[in-house]
Design goal:
- This is Short-chain dehydrogenase.
- InterPro entries: NAD(P)-bd_dom_sf, SDR, SDR_fam.
- Helices cover about 40% and strands about 15% of the residues.
- Helix 1 (about 15-25) packs parallel to helix 2 and helix 1 (about 15-25) crosses helix 7 (about 220-230).
- The protein has one domain (about 5-255): Rossmann fold (3-Layer(aba) Sandwich).
- Helix 2 (about 45-50) links the parallel strand 2 and strand 3 (about 55-60).
- The chain is α/β, with parallel strands linked by helices.
Length: about 260
Amino acid sequence: MRLLHKTIFITDSDSPSGKALMQHLAGEGAHLLVNSTSGGVDIEAQRVYCLNAGSNLKVVRLDLCHSAEVMAMLDEAEQHIGPVDILIHNNNRVETANVETCAEDLFVQVMDDNAKSAFVCTQSVGSRMAKRRAGKIIFISSIHAEKPTGSSFMYSLSRSAVKMLSKEAALELGRYGIQVNTIELGPVEGDEDRFRSTLSTLYEDVQYKIPSTVMGTYNDLAEAILYLATDASRYVNGADLRLDGGFLLHYMNHKMNKPAST
């Protein structure tokens, strides 16, 4: 068990990625603090799994954009499962909108959910880690920190903001023995609909734009998280791990690795 007795804070446990992380990390001996917008309803199966695996589990429901709320929660959580050793920021809100017509309030909501929450959690958890001179912060981001979606410009903006937050935090918090890294996740099941665009063909035949033609899964993400969460990555700080199977290397649709029968 590579994470035995480590306390891990996952910011969005209700998502498919959050559910995969809960099971994967609990299976490695971690104790979990998870933020659930459903108050735990949508993760009941994962909760039972974690408890059966011997994991201490605390489910919270709070607005991660309010630092006072986050700090109070961390104070309480420390009494139940101990201080946070690893923060996994997993917020990933996608909304379809373009630059010309996007409503201002929707822009702010996406930036808050994806980027401001990352700052608040990093500041709140990072200050506590600094006092202990140890800790790891992992941002689950997207290849769209670098590549436009053609369908959700503010999503790309929020991912780019987190990319630079990670590097600034790695520089500052690294002085206290804290590692801060980002995983830029590429296509997984459902992304062809999530990022459907009238401007770009990026997600058309997305599977065949991956050299192996094998789509990634949230279990692949969990394995990458496990590497960054353990001592195996002790010399990795301020890095962006692109987890896309080579998707962004594709550049000509007529050269796709697509079976002739399709």
